[in-house]
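Private note to self, pasted from the team thread so I don't lose it. Backbone tokens:
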């Protein structure tokens, strides 16, 4: 009897242990399936998010181009003033501006540093337009500009907060001054219109966001 009882207990323990092993195996399989399902769900969300962002970005670009419409009106002082709509939406995809340099419109979320910053290479228009929104005057020149004028203007910019300067070989005139919705050509660094343009438009009434930062953005 005693021997049979011991044998029965041993078999029961063995069955219990086998059941426990089977249960642990099922739990492991369940965890693997849950993890795999989670990965699939997350991947789907990521892909869906990317598609949505791309679609929204594309929509933003279309809106950016559509919201910049109008034309220049030249005043008696020689300043061209944009009459029309200039979008102000932050976008990360390319915007095609109707003027060179642009005088406003939708632009990159990051502004170009404009605390008297002089750049020796062409800028991304989308960053520079953001600087214009902050009330900066942007001095640009092409290969036809005299070196003496470029050097003199660079010295002026370096002494003037809320200004920036860069080459732009796509513009039609040797030296141009641009503010938000305003632009003019000057004959050289000693042209009195340089001083008057700076005085009127550096943080001028045209500024959409007066006092906004001109540092902490995109630099050299």
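Design output:
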């Amino acid at each position: 009897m005693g021997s049979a009882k011991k044998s029965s207990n041993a078999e029961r323990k063995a069955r219990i242990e086998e059941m426990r092993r089977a249960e642990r195996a099922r739990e492991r399989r369940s965890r693997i399936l849950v993890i795999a399902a989670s990965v699939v769900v997350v991947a789907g969300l990521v892909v869906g998010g990317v598609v949505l962002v791309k679609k929204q970005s594309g929509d933003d670009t279309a809106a950016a181009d559509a919201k910049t419409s109008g034309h220049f009106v030249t005043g008696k002082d020689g300043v061209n003033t944009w009459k029309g709509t200039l979008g102000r939406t932050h976008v990360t995809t390319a915007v095609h501006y109707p003027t060179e340099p642009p005088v406003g419109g939708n632009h990159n979320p990051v502004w170009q540093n404009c605390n008297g910053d002089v750049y020796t290479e062409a800028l991304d228009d989308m960053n520079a337009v953001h600087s214009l929104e902050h009330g900066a005057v942007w001095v640009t020149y092409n290969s036809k500009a005299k070196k003496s004028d470029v050097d003199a203007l660079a010295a002026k910019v370096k002494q003037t907060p809320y200004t920036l300067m860069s080459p732009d070989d796509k513009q039609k005139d040797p030296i141009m001054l641009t503010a938000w919705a305003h632009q003019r050509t000057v004959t050289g660094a000693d042209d009195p219109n340089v001083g008057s343009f700076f005085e009127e438009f550096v943080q001028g009434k045209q500024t959409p966001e007066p006092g906004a930062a001109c540092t902490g953005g995109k630099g050299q």
